[in-house]
Write a structure and sequence with these properties.
The chain has a single domain, classed as Multidrug-efflux Transporter Regulator, Chain: A, Domain 2 (Orthogonal Bundle), CATH 1.10.1660. It is about 70% helix and about 5% strand. Strand 2 and strand 3 form a beta hairpin. By secondary structure, it is mainly alpha-helical. The longest helix has about 40 residues.
Length: about 130
């Protein structure tokens, strides 16, 4: 199926300016154009955009994502590079998850702390527990 830039933007919740930027940066090397010059996105482009957005969420730079796009166009010759890249991304995301879990633990503690203080009408109840 083919999609306009507006349809793609709505489907993936990505601004049209970002889609144009990705194309201009070479992240979508197989994108088609109408005779008028308008971009035409297909299902493969949609799948690639989902991967690009995923990689961005891991903190990957546009330059690194561009290298991934190049590897994709190389096909089987770059399978090992792509696999190694995703192994690295997985380690990074696991680290991010660990950091977020630690952050959530502290937030949960503080929620409990304040909930107890509010019920007691004072924060001083926590001072007694520390002694």
């Amino acid at each position: 199926m083919n999609y306009t830039i507006k349809e793609t933007s709505q489907l993936l919740n990505i601004p049209t300016t970002t889609l144009r930027y990705y194309d201009n940066e070479g992240l979508l090397p197989n994108i088609s154009r109408k005779a008028s010059g308008y971009r035409v996105f297909n299902d493969n482009d949609i799948a690639m955009l989902k991967v690009i957005e995923c990689l961005k969420k891991t903190g990957m730079s546009i330059k690194e994502i561009k290298q991934f796009s190049i590897w994709v166009t190389e096909g089987d010759a770059s399978l090992n590079e792509r696999y190694e890249m995703f192994l690295n991304r997985r380690k990074i995301v696991e680290g991010q998850i660990k950091e977020l879990e630690e952050t959530l633990d502290l937030i949960n503690y503080k929620c409990s702390y304040y909930e107890q203080a509010i019920k007691a009408g004072t924060e001083s109840i926590h001072n007694k527990k520390r002694a």
